[in-house]
């Protein structure tokens, strides 16, 4: 069960960018971004967070 501190908040611009990702990989992109953010103590996901996670997992 998630507590309030475990919930990731996606900022509107990041959500718009996420929706540009093809649906068949969008879930994985979202999970990876949230994992990346959680590991760094980030609770609000911005476009920058999304791009940083993408770069991190592309290695």
From TrEMBL:
It holds the Pfam family PCP_red. Residues 10-54 form the Light-independent protochlorophyllide reductase subunit B-like C-terminal domain. Gene3D superfamilies: Proto-chlorophyllide reductase 57 kD subunit B (1.10.8.550). GO terms for molecular function: oxidoreductase activity. One of its GO terms (biological process) is photosynthesis. This is Light-independent protochlorophyllide reductase subunit B-like C-terminal domain-containing protein. It comes from Roseicyclus marinus. The lineage of its organism: Bacteria, Pseudomonadati, Pseudomonadota, Alphaproteobacteria, Rhodobacterales.
